[in-house]
Amino acid sequence: MKNAIWAGIVLLATVTVAVVHAAPEPQDRSEHLPAAPYLQAGAPTFDMTIGQFREKYNAAHPTLPLSEYRAIDGHGDKSNLTRAASKINENIYSSTALEQGTGKIKTLQITWLPIPGPEQKASRDKAVAYMAALIHYFEPMLSDEQSRKRADDLLAKGKGSRFYQQTEGALRYIVADNGDKGLTFAVEPLKLALRMP
Q1: pTM for the full predicted model
Q2: Who has the most CB within 10 Å: 49, 75, 81, 154?
Q3: pLDDT band at residue 75, thresholds of 50, 70 and 90?
């Protein structure tokens, strides 16, 4: 089950159009997580490694921590990127793609895999809180409330869309909404070596 979820996260960050089967719950149903067209050729990087990001993010958002990112086996991947993921809980993950050689971040993502039942709303709310925290990290001039509103607005605009993007200054926000098969929110730099605090 874990390998299928990790594979889904990896493929969400690639430029392929393949479909991956994932089973986020111990059920016999298959989930289809289509790939989103992230990381276009020549995509820039943030001027930080995943370790630097995580340290600063966790200091700024102690109630929404990110565990250590672990490399994902990229065997057969010809993109020259290192992929890694951090499990938040059974249905929320953060993932990244790093430039090989420098280890600098090209994209940061939060993926929510819906769980049917009464806990779905609370689970989604927690995922959106992580998305808002990511926005706040990259746009510290926004208040927590403004960051949450931006996350809600982006998710509303991207609702039902396999790929929605919006530019805010030097950032590109991406929403890939696959309904009951998963929701991914990503942030990427638009300028080379964008420096963060």
Answers
A1: 0.78
A2: 154
A3: low
Q: In 3D, which of 7, 17, 1 has the Cα closest to residue 111?
A: 7
What is the per-residue pLDDT for 41? 59
d(CA 39, CA 91) in angstroms, rounded, equals 24
- Residue range 116-157, pLDDT digits in tens: 889 999 999 999 999 999 999 999 999 999 999 999 999 999
Alpha carbon of 147 to those of 8, 15, 140, 163, 188: distances in Å? 27, 28, 9, 21, 16
CB-based contact 109:96 (threshold 8 Å): yes
Within the chain, where are the H helices? 2-12, 50-60, 120-138, 144-157
103-138 burial: b if 16+ Cβ within 10 Å, else e: ebbbbbbbbbbbbeeeeeeebbebbbbbbbbbbbbb
Alpha-carbon gap, residue 94 to 187, rounded angstroms: 11
Whole-number Å distance between alpha carbons of 178 and 164: 12
**What whole-number distance in Å separates Cα of residue 195 and Cα of residue 105?**
11
The Cα 95–Cα 182 span in angstroms is 14
